[in-house]
Amino acid sequence: MAVDRSDIVKLGELARLQISEETIDEVTRRLGDVLALVDQLQAADTDAVKPMAHPFDAVQRLRADEVTEPNQRDAFQAIAPATEDGLYLVPKVID
Which residues fall within 8 angstroms of residue 83, CB to CB, at 6 or more apart? Predict the structure, then answer.
C-alpha cells in the first residue's frame, strides 16, 4: 500500500495533528516503511504455527470465580441521577 503526501495531510486533519510542511515527506516515508513491513509480515506462512496466549510458557495464577461482594445495585442506583430497568442513563453526547 502506497502512501503519498495527500494521505498524510488527510490523516493529520482527521487525527487533529499539526504536521508541518517540512516533516510531511519524512512522515510519508516512515509510514510507508511501516506499511511495507506489515505487508511483509502478512506474506509470511503461518499455517503451521499454533496460536499462543503468551510468548512464554507462563501460567497465570487464577482465583476462584466466586461472588465475594453483596449486590448493592439498588443502593447505588438510588443516588444516580437517572436509571431505567436497572441501567444508568447518561446524556447523549454524540448526535
Answer: 77, 89
